[in-house]
Amino acid sequence: VGSSRGGLVSRAQAHRRGDGLSSVMAAGIDSELPSSIGLVGVGTIGSAVIHGLCSPGQGAPARIPRVVISPRGAQKAAALKAALPDHVTIAGSNQEVVDSVDCVIVSVLVKQADEVLKSLKFREGQKVLSLMAGVMPSKLQELAAPVTDCASAIPLPAVAKRQGTSLLTPSKPWAKAIFDVCGGCVAVDDDAKFKRMMCVTGLMGDFYKRQLTVQGWLASHGVPEAAASAWTGATFATFAVDSAQAEADTFHKLVEEQTPGGLNEMVWRSQDEDKSYQSLLYQLDAVHHRIVKGADDPDLPSLAPAAKRARL
């Protein structure tokens, strides 16, 4: 496993530090960053990556890539072009995107992957990056032949602000350069580990739902909505500061350092007794099953929600 967030730092972090590492790291990233990038599938995640790559300001590469995007999803394509007019061009077709660039990012729906990629003609020497969950480099290479330089990644929306860590396989220098600009990446060279680690991204909705629940609890007890949301969001962000660049024993230490008999220990122990963390493990297993098998399995008791397991 390689990381641009652990022992190393992301480009944006280096800029914030303001030390000599910044210029050295930036030079390395700029030398590997593709000079022209195409985006097939202008959705939320694909657009976020382009924003992270091309937006001006702290952490921007010295040489911002020329970007060509597909016309489908006209409203989102137009919005991306309007936001980054100096760097983004809207092509007339998906094939025009492929013909115009050295590196193609594919970010269509997974169910559309075969149809879209088989309809395109790639050329030798191109690079192809999948942002489609579960479409691995071997499959990508098959669909984008004769291309052999392929990678798969799982970025999250925060890459638009250069604050998102992405999951990448394999550790291709040009792909790492893309995500180092966008906040950093963790790279693995094994499909099975990639799919297992990918499950963690399924917790994003749960993270926000927990915040929404806390905000609602505060508001129901008389705290103004604005204050409730501001405090909840800021508090969760504060919690994450100490674990954002975790080492092998970081989480164990953070749990152990909660004051014995204090409020923090009371909450996690009560959650533990209530099987909340066991439920979390069931959900991770269910997400992994869906990623590997391509579908849910509602009849498998070990993957069922707690209420359903009680009835089985």
Summarize the structure in words.
It is a single chain. The chain has 312 residues and is α/β, with parallel strands linked by helices. The protein contains 15 helices and nine strands. The chain has helices at 11-17, 20-32, 44-54, 74-83, 94-100, 113-118, 137-143, 173-181, 191-198, 204-220, 225-241, 250-256, 263-273, 276-293, 306-311; strands at residues 2-3, 36-40, 66-69, 88-90, 103-106, 127-130, 149-154, 166-169, 185-187. It has a nine-stranded mixed sheet, sandwiched between helices. Helix 6 links the parallel strand 5 and strand 6. The model is unreliable at 4-9 and 14-21 (pLDDT under 50).
Give the helix/strand layout.
Layout: E1 2-3, H1 11-17, H2 20-32, E2 36-40, H3 44-54, E3 66-69, H4 74-83, E4 88-90, H5 94-100, E5 103-106, H6 113-118, E6 127-130, H7 137-143, E7 149-154, E8 166-169, H8 173-181, E9 185-187, H9 191-198, H10 204-220, H11 225-241, H12 250-256, H13 263-273, H14 276-293, H15 306-311
Parallel strand pairs: 2-3, 2-5, 3-4, 5-6, 6-7, 8-9
Antiparallel strand pairs: 1-9, 7-8
Distance between the termini: 39 Å
**What percentage of residues falls in helices of 4 or more residues?**
40-55%
Which strand-content bin applies to the residues? 5-15%
Structural class: alpha/beta
Number of strands: 9
Q: Spans of 5+ residues with little confidence (pLDDT < 50)?
A: 4-9, 14-21
Judging from the principal axes of the Cα atoms, what is the shape? Answer: globular
- Radius of gyration from the CA trace? 21 Å
Major sheet attributes: 9 strands, mixed
Average pLDDT reading = 89
Listing every helix as H and every strand as E from the N terminus to the C terminus, the arrangement reads EHHEHEHEHEHEHEEHEHHHHHHH
Side-by-side strand order of the widest sheet: 1-9-8-7-6-5-2-3-4
- Total helical segments: 15
